[in-house]
Structure formats: C-alpha cells, structure tokens
Write the structure tokens for this entry.
Amino acid sequence: MFFPPKFLLSLVVSVACLLPSLGATGDSLYFLLPSDTVVVQADPVSGHLLFNHYLAPKQTLYGAARFYGFSLDELYRLNPALRKGYTPGTKVTVAIPRSVIRPSFSRDSVAWFVPIRYRMAPGETLYGLTRRTLGLPNDSLLRALNPGLSADKLTPGQVIKIGYLRIDGIRPESQVKVEDPYLLRNRPLHVQWDTVMADKRLRLTNGKAAWTNSGDRSKWMVLHRTAPIGSLVEIEEPRSRKTIYAQVVGRIPEQVYDSRVILVVSPLLVKAFGVRDKEFYVRTRHL
C-alpha cells in the first residue's frame, strides 16, 4: 500500500508526540525526536551552548558521541564522571553549535526538526543573549520566534525559543572545539603563573599528593611543606596528563601525613584530575 509523503511525516510526528519521555531523550532508535524538549544554557567558562541529553534504554555513550558530532574522548572531557560507567537515564552534557541552529524550516519537514530553547541566566538581558551568547546582529529573530517577548519582563529561568535543530545528528566538522572544563576554569591561574614565574628559579619535586574533603570546594588550593604561603604551585598528574595550578594556603600537618606526601590538594583538584585513590603521584614546580 502506498502512503503519500505528507501522510508519513504526519504519522512520524503523531507517534513521537505520544511517546512518554520517561526521563530520557529520544528512544531506542533515535537520539532526538521532534517531541523532545531541548533547552540549552550558555556555559560561563567556555561560552558554548550546553544541553543535557538523558540516555534512553539501548542508547550508548558511543552512539550519543557520534550523533552529536564528538569523539568519545571529547565527550569524556565534557563528562569526566562517565568514565566510571553509565545506565539508562544518565545525563550526558553535549554542546549544540550555534551554526547548526536554524531560524525556520519548511512545513513539510516538521518531522525532521526539534525546537531549541534557551534558559535565561540570572542578570542576563535580551541584548546580551542576542549579541554575546547567540552572535545575532539584532533581536528580530527572537521576537519572531517568541511573540509578545518583552525585554523588560525577562526573568531568570525563563525559556525562550531560539531556533530549530535537525534530528539526524550533528556533523563533526560543525561541532565546537571541546576543552577540558577544569583546565578552562584553571586558566586564570595558568596565566598568572606564566606572568609571575617567568624569571624565577623554580624547584622541581616528585612525590605523592593526598587529598581531603575539607576546604573550599570551589578554589584551587594546596597545602605544601616549603613553598611560600600565597604562592602558586604547578602540579602535573601523569595518569590524566593534566597540569593544573593552585595556590599554597597552608602547611602540611606533620602529625597527619608522612614525609612521602609533598602536597595535600583541595576537592576541586581531586575532581579535575579524576583521581580515586587517597594518594596519587604528581610532579610539581614551585618557589
């Protein structure tokens, strides 16, 4: 029996709209459906538009990486915790490149597109969203997509439609460059290190680092035996092949740690290196 193309498109949309979300994105066959809710937010560090995809049953991490135009290693950079494993319903953060978001589509292509919406951050303005976040010349597109949109009545958490995305995947050449989010976050200290330590004589030390759950979880901090309080330390962790910079905030308690421990690092450094053991090997440079 022959079905006209428009009938088939309507059938796909109707079936998609009847599927329950079940806390997942897409289904066992498709990573995105026209009925999915795709809400992006701007990452304050990288500036990328990030979307949380929730794995549906039978979806794999490798499949999600391929669909969104990433290598598996790039997806791990965005989601370090996923190296430990995943299950149906697991959140996978991906980037949606601005270049693949379309302002509109033809009516007979409705089954191939999903709306993209943006969640406003505290203090964000329509001007900032238009110019800085989306790189648009003016707000005419956003006003056309959101009838009645008022720049004076925007609130944190408000969701605004910004365009449409094809549901057949993102090509790797269209995807943004993914950098380790912790290294991006650590960049100001890296720049400070390069500036301050350029003409200094530095000591090289190899040994074990230990970590503790106490301390400010949002700061790059270490305890050190000899480096001046307030100075910076360069820390290389060979397993992850990451180099991170931290500030010395105190001395290592002799009664708690033995002489093999040359650093005690804050919780943020533990997350950045992705270590599990209470002690791990590091190479350092310091004053």
The longest helix spans residues 181-196. The helical segments are 5-18, 61-67, 72-78, 126-133, 140-145, 181-196, 267-273.
